User: What shape does this take?
Amino acid sequence: MTAAVASAKPFAHCGIRPVEPRHDMAALAGLIEQAFSERLDASGRRMILGMKMFARAGSLGWFLGRWFLPPAAYPQGYVWEEDGEVVGNASLLPVSGYQQRWVMANVVVKPEYQRQGIARELILASIEHARRSGGKRIILQVDRDNQGARTLYENLKFKTLSTRTTWLRKENGEWPHADTQDQVRPRTSGEWRGHWALAKRLHPEGLLWPFPAVASLFRPSGFENLFGLGKPKHWVWQEAGRLAGAVSIRSELERRLLRLMMVVEPEWREDIESGLLCEAMQESAALADNFILDYPSDVAREKIERLGFKAIRELTWMGMNLEENET
Assistant: This one.
């Protein structure tokens, strides 16, 4: 028995190889859960649970999972094996609708295999894969307090784009009010281009992960009021005829949850956020009880907290222009 086991070991694969979602789904789910279990949101936990369930169903589960699981459950990218066990992963996916923009995610190595250069090799292979596939840009998110990972990405020529706090406000039976709220009004249809221009200038990396700041997020739609019973989706604050800030709402997959997307001119930060957020939340009360907001870290923290929000995560967005980093 011992001889048989020993003779089988040399045939087990070791090193890097492309990910094979059909065979690696269970291993990927385990790695991601082990590394990020404390920081997974509800959608992430559902994905992990679904990946495990469909992986147990074999080939049929792999096929059916494509109908029920998000694209992140079927990534491109690379894994690292030791004696046939998947011990590291770097997932890679093109952004839907923006095929030259790629997302790198779930870069993880089991603790006992860390500090051996595995993560670096997985990242480098993924960068080359995106470049060969026509990608022009790779973006990723890393926890602000994960200095080791940030240093690794910086050494590989990723640049910091922004750092944002994710805020969550859960239903508490009370709606806040700001003294400055009367200065906020619904955006007119003719103001959408100015709103878009402000977002592109302040956040060229994008507002809604992982998409760029595209016109469709701001352009009026003939259907945007269909389910809102005529209520607006965008509000603005002007100073001396100039757009100082704006906030928009967007539905999330979670029931009764709306995403707030806010942009504010730097000179007006700390002054107008409360008014914008209060107006948007009160006007959207019929649609949601809970609100989520990503906003630049260390900006208007106390004011956002006074509105009932709690900080749940701080993420640094990083990116690489592949055309500038060709080897």
Q: What stands out?
A: The chain has a mean pLDDT of 89.
